[in-house]
Amino acid sequence: MNPLCSEFTSSSRKAPEAAIGQVLIEALPYIRKFEGKTFVIKYGGSAMKDELLKNSFAQNVTLLRKVGINVVLVHGGGDAITRTAEKLGLVSQFVHGKRVTDNDMITVVQMTLAGKVNQDIVRLLSEHGGKAVGVTGLDADTIKAVPGPNAEKLGLVGDVESINTDYIDLLCRAGLIPVIAPVGYDHNGNIYNINADDAASSIAIALKAEKLIYVSDVEGIQVGERILKTICKAEAADFIEQGIISGGMIPKVLSAFKTLDGGVRKIHLIDGKFTHSLLLEIFTHEGIGTQFIAEQDNDQQENR
Ligand SMILES: Nc1ncnc2c1ncn2[C@@H]1O[C@H](COP(=O)(O)OP(=O)(O)O)[C@@H](O)[C@H]1O
Ligand SMILES: CC(=O)N[C@@H](CCC(=O)OP(=O)(O)O)C(=O)O
């Protein structure tokens, strides 16, 4: 008989311990599979705001790093930018989920994302024993940008031109957790506001990451009452067209498919409002959230 089963039946006192052991051991094949691999995590939503969720996220990330996974965090902070802008008398406007960014707004973006939000995350990870390093797109050419396609409406919103993977790899090899703020600059020294989902996508592709995981505030992609377990490109285009996918979910979904096309194998959207959702996603047999797949009914539908 399986020794774990006999423990369950012979001593009820030991049953809870055995159950915990069973949960922990379920992680072993995944730890073996992912050791030395790179995960890019887009950190956003409540998991960046609520104290309990922030701490649980930081513990999860630290644990992933400690078991040998190269974790690269790319953070958002759209709400924080909006609040800082308001205090300075600037009104935020969005076009298809992207912030209209003039000269004043780019200053607010830079000081909020790179100055405050980034450093708060670094401190949080450090508190939990994760050795994190704050990186903005400007450090060591981490994110070189070009003006985005809708520049006449959006202003200084950039697209990623290139990523300095050597620098990010160097940090990972040193056992550090790069925490990247999504601002970039171009050859003329102009600074650009880059949507964090787009930045995460480009970084995941450039690093040839094993996974890109979006941590957001939703259980997954919602259609009516249903949360989709998988979504393919054609469905997503229809849902955007019909307004079923809207606002900040549009850049997330578009960047997810760009990442899939760019060769990253697994892309997940998980709920940051759910404590330890990251660990559950990676280390248990049951996947959660929505997985992005190229086409419906192909073999990519298996979990992780
Ligand atoms: N079909 C949909 N399914 C889930 N969320 C959606 C959908 N359409 C629009 N949304 C909205 O998109 C938001 C996520 O985008 P955003 O706020 O930019 O996330 P984050 O700040 O985590 O990057 C959700 O909070 C939700 O209100
Ligand atoms: C161009 C653009 O819209 N940039 C975003 C950058 C931050 C971000 O993406 O934050 P979330 O992930 O929290 O939405 C912004 O200014 O809000």
Structural topology:
Layout: H1 3-10, H2 15-26, H3 28-34, E1 38-43, H4 51-66, E2 70-75, H5 78-87, E3 94-95, E4 98-99, H6 103-127, E5 132-136, E6 143-147, H7 151-154, E7 158-163, H8 165-173, E8 177-181, E9 183-185, E10 191-193, H9 196-206, E11 211-216, E12 222-223, E13 226-227, E14 230-232, H10 233-241, H11 249-261, E15 266-271, H12 277-283, E16 290-293
Parallel strand pairs: 1-2, 1-11, 2-8, 5-8, 11-15, 14-16
Antiparallel strand pairs: 3-4, 6-7, 9-10, 12-13, 15-16
The structure holds adenosine-5'-diphosphate and N-acetyl-L-glutamyl 5-phosphate.
Descriptive overview:
With 304 residues, the chain is of the alpha/beta class. It has one domain (26-218, 253-288): 3-Layer(aba) Sandwich (Carbamate kinase), CATH 3.40.1160. It is built from twelve helices and 16 strands. The chain has helices at residues 3-10, 15-26, 28-34, 51-66, 78-87, 103-127, 151-154, 165-173, 196-206, 233-241, 249-261, 277-283, and strands at 38-43, 70-75, 94-95, 98-99, 132-136, 143-147, 158-163, 177-181, 183-185, 191-193, 211-216, 222-223, 226-227, 230-232, 266-271, 290-293. It has an eight-stranded mixed β-sheet, sandwiched between helices. The chain has a two-stranded antiparallel sheet with strand order 3-4. It has a two-stranded antiparallel sheet with strand order 6-7. The chain is globular, with a radius of gyration of 20 Å. The two termini are 30 Å apart. It binds adenosine-5'-diphosphate and N-acetyl-L-glutamyl 5-phosphate. Residues 44-45, 76, 78, 216-218, 221-222, 244-249, 252 line the site of adenosine-5'-diphosphate.
